[in-house]
Amino acid sequence: MTVKLGIPSKGRLMEQTLAWFGDREIGLSRAGSDREYAGAVSGIDGVELILLSAGEVPRELAAGRLHLGVTGTDLVREKIPLWRTQIETVAELGFGHADLIIAVPKFWTDVETLDDLDAVAARFRADHGHRLRIATKYHRLVREHLQSAGVADYLIVDSQGATEGTVKNLTAEAIADITSTGATLEANHLKVLADGPILASQATLFASHVTPWSEAEQKTLTRIADMLGAKLPEAFI
Ligand SMILES: Nc1ncnc2c1ncn2[C@@H]1O[C@H](COP(=O)(O)OP(=O)(O)OP(=O)(O)O)[C@@H](O)[C@H]1O
Ligand SMILES: O=P(O)(O)OC[C@H]1O[C@H](OP(=O)(O)OP(=O)(O)O)[C@H](O)[C@@H]1O
């Protein structure tokens, strides 16, 4: 049986993943055209490459349909509740760095921290007849973070893209999203709360231990870890 390795099928994350494995003598490439999501592997036997959405990698690992997968830590933490029971970190890849943050309009001069947001949220409901809305696709991580900070008077509004635009479009008062350069926040006149990020994410190689690996697959994994200079997670030793 082959080891199924899933990597993002487009964008910077895919390009950097291909380059990262290439630098470690594992050649990953698309098998055909840009639109074909099958991959080719050289430099190691027994590995099958699958190109898929970064957002789907966590689910496929948790279902045991992928043995290995590259995606952002943010997506694994958001999509797999008890991720450590199903998935192990093999290597952090050192790119795709981004922080999950909460941001509010710059003109909210009385809001710099979560405590300030909490105070405004309580007043907001009385003043506007509805709860303060936070647009995000990171529902679980944001809820957990706000709960631990004691912020309760808010509503999550789902936003799967262009999240920073929701404030201007009046569908939310605040947002929670990934930022790296800060340019998108700046362009949308938003400022990050000062308490620090909810999560610091980067591209990571994960291994699934949901279904047992065959002996041949284990051997391939050991070889991969050697080539990548990665330490095998406990569950695989
Ligand atoms: N501006 C950014 N800088 C660095 N990393 C980012 C940035 N935006 C998103 N990422 C990271 O890239 C990964 C993929 O993000 P996202 O799900 O938005 O990708 P996508 O290309 O929209 O994927 P999909 O194929 O699911 O639509 C996430 O782990 C995220 O943290
Ligand atoms: O801090 P910055 O460097 O400006 O990057 C942040 C932006 O990058 C991501 O969006 P992406 O370009 O993936 O598009 P999306 O809005 O569809 O998620 C993220 O959702 C932010 O909008």
From TrEMBL:
Recorded GO CC terms: cytoplasm
EC number: 2.4.2.17
Domain ATP phosphoribosyltransferase catalytic: 55-223
Keywords, ordered alphabetically: Amino-acid biosynthesis, Glycosyltransferase, Histidine biosynthesis, Transferase
UniProt GO BP: L-histidine biosynthetic process
Catalytic reaction list: 1-(5-phospho-beta-D-ribosyl)-ATP + diphosphate = 5-phospho-alpha-D-ribose 1-diphosphate + ATP
PANTHER family found in the cross-reference section: ATP PHOSPHORIBOSYLTRANSFERASE, ATP PHOSPHORIBOSYLTRANSFERASE ATP-PRTASE
NCBIfam families linked to this entry: hisG
Function noted in UniProt: Catalyzes the condensation of ATP and 5-phosphoribose 1-diphosphate to form N'-(5'-phosphoribosyl)-ATP (PR-ATP). Has a crucial role in the pathway because the rate of histidine biosynthesis seems to be controlled primarily by regulation of HisG enzymatic activity.
Protein name: ATP phosphoribosyltransferase
